[in-house]
């Protein structure tokens, strides 16, 4: 990496990130009257091309497909029904990526499109495939452009916003930094539109934002995320060991250079294994196992495997190796894990000691190596 020595940079963890994920929102690339704003997109490409020229790798998570399709279809606002939104995404995604391809080509950079649905990351095999695809694109010198596949995603399998997608991609891509760009220049301790508010410079613990009320909508009406979704995504990445900067798109160059702009979410933990991360943040539980208090203590405090003796009931239709939630007597989700039995096998096992079970059933219901504790991020 060229430029100032890292010791002289305000945020060396971002400036020194050899592989960085950059997410840009619809509000930064499009407008309701005119759809895709080519000048804004080109300005962002200039910044990212400069980052690439310094020897760093970039993965771009870009919203904007639906918004880019509004003007060509003669629509004056974001569609409320799923079919029209999917149609707008079909038209807009092609225009969006072609515009990116042309802009990056002027810098000698080839781009590759990666379209994902939540289903692609909630299924373990698909999650691994996404990792391999991104890794191979980067090894070939290609800049991956990731977006949610809005043309096929249904309400039930949507990420809902690309901030969460970007946090997941940061782990999938094994990135060392994440920058979330929008039309807001950081996290404030109040709403700057309604009164005095101070920009929060650094968040090192969820408690730092305990008293902060976060907004829930973008300013220009074409995006789906707000500051609350960005903070949630930032905590997901930070707890997985990836530092995050939340700032405005015009400040992208400064943020990537490690300057003190926007809000930094410092890494709050070590990078978990891919399996642990997937279980906690990307898996979709297929059912529930209801635990007695003794099992809760064993799982939460002793990090023990879950045995049949501590299970009082089940919910849902799941198969062996499906992800399930482990729930305490008070309804609190304690952990997620991969269950060793089908739901239909469980009634005969409930509450029974391992030694009393038939030999083929004398194994953990959820092994501790296939389990991750679940707690609130903020």
Automatic annotation (TrEMBL):
Reactions performed catalytically: L-glutamate + ATP = L-glutamyl 5-phosphate + ADP
Positions contributing to ATP binding: 23, 182-183, 224-230
Keyword Zinc: no
Top EC category: transferase
EC id: 2.7.2.11
Gene3D superfamilies: Acetylglutamate kinase-like (3.40.1160.10), PUA domain (2.30.130.10)
Subcellular location: Cytoplasm
Keyword annotations of the record: Amino-acid biosynthesis, ATP-binding, Cytoplasm, Kinase, Nucleotide-binding, Proline biosynthesis, Transferase
Pfam families: AA_kinase (PF00696), PUA (PF01472)
One GO CC annotation: cytosol
GO molecular function, one term: glutamate 5-kinase activity
Pathway listed: Amino-acid biosynthesis; L-proline biosynthesis; L-glutamate 5-semialdehyde from L-glutamate: step 1/2
Biological processes per GO annotation: L-proline biosynthetic process
PUA domain mapped to chain residues: 287-367
Keyword Disulfide bond: no
Positions that bind substrate: 63, 150, 162
Primary location recorded for the protein, binned into one broad class: cytoplasm
PANTHER family from the UniProt entry: GLUTAMATE 5-KINASE (PTHR43654), ISOPENTENYL PHOSPHATE KINASE (PTHR43654:SF1)
Protein purpose: Catalyzes the transfer of a phosphate group to glutamate to form L-glutamate 5-phosphate.
HAMAP family listed in its UniProt record: ProB
The family this protein is said to belong to: Belongs to the glutamate 5-kinase family.
Protein name: Glutamate 5-kinase
């Amino acid at each position: 990496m060229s430029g100032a020595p890292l010791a002289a940079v305000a945020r060396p963890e971002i400036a020194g990130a050899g592989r960085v994920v950059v997410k840009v929102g619809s509000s930064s690339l499009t407008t309701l009257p005119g759809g895709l704003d080519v000048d804004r997109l080109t300005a962002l490409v200039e910044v990212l091309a400069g980052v690439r020229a310094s020897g760093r790798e970039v993965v771009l998570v870009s919203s904007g497909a639906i918004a880019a399709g509004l003007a060509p279809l003669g629509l004056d606002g974001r569609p409320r029904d799923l079919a029209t939104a999917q149609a707008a995404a079909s038209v807009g995604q092609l225009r969006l990526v072609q515009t990116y391809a042309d802009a990056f080509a002027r810098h000698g950079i080839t781009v590759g499109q990666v379209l994902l649905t939540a289903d692609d990351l909630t299924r373990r095999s698909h999650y691994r495939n996404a990792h391999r695809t991104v890794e191979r694109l980067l090894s070939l010198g290609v800049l991956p452009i990731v977006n949610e596949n809005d043309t096929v995603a249904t309400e039930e399998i949507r990420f809902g916003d690309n901030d969460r997608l970007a946090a997941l991609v940061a782990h999938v891509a094994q990135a060392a930094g994440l920058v979330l760009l929008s039309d807001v220049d950081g996290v404030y301790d109040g709403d700057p539109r309604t009164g005095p508010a101070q920009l929060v410079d650094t968040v090192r613990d969820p408690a730092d934002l305990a008293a902060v009320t976060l907004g829930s909508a973008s300013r220009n009406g074409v995006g789906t995320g707000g500051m609350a979704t960005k903070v949630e995504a930032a905590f997901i990445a930070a707890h997985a060991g990836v530092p995050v900067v939340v700032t405005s798109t015009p400040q992208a160059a400064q943020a990537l250079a490690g300057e003190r702009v926007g809000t930094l979410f410092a890494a709050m933990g070590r990078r978990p294994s891919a399996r642990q991360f997937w279980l906690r943040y990307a898996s979709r539980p297929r059912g529930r196992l209801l635990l007695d208090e003794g099992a809760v203590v064993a799982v939460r405090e002793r990090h023990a495997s879950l045995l049949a003796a501590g299970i009082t009931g089940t919910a849902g239709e799941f198969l062996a190796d499906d992800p399930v939630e482990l729930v305490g007597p008070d309804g609190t989700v304690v952990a997620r894990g991969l269950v060793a039995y089908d739901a239909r096998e469980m009634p005969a096992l409930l509450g029974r000691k391992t030694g009393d079970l038939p030999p083929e059933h004398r194994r953990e219901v959820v092994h501790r190596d296939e389990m991750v504790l679940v707690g609130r991020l903020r």
